[in-house]
Amino acid sequence: MAIEVRIPTILRTYTDGAKAVDGTGETLAELFTDLDTRHAGIRARIVDEEKGGELRRFVNVYLNDEDVRFLDGISTKLTDGDNVTILPAVAGGMV
């Protein structure tokens, strides 16, 4: 099962600069574990183990353009050909 994962610029140091990588897994949790076997350290930037393995608060993940927080979060099921996009939340502005 091949799943394309789009990597944001800030995490591309883990993927040797690749904008997208392929991974496998039945769920997002399995996908991120699979990615970590080839791109060591990337999972820790996405998943918060201190919060029971949930997605980090300031990381948004989309499955086929739908926010996984409105699906089953890190337990969201995946199928062959899915596209996963990882986007760190950005805050800012002027005071």
Describe the structure.
This is Molybdopterin synthase sulfur carrier subunit. InterPro entries: Beta-grasp_dom_sf, Mopterin_synth/thiamin_S_b, Sulfur_Carrier/Prot_Modifier, ThiS/MoaD-like. It comes from Streptomyces avermitilis (strain ATCC 31267 / DSM 46492 / JCM 5070 / NBRC 14893 / NCIMB 12804 / NRRL 8165 / MA-4680). It holds the Pfam family ThiS. This protein is an alpha+beta fold and 95 residues long. The protein is 17% helix and 26% strand. The protein has two helices and seven strands. The strands form two sheets. Strands 2-1-7-5-6 form a five-stranded mixed sheet, covered by helices on one side. Strands 3-4 form a two-stranded antiparallel sheet. A hairpin with a 5-residue loop joins strand 3 and strand 4. The N and C termini lie far apart (47 Å).
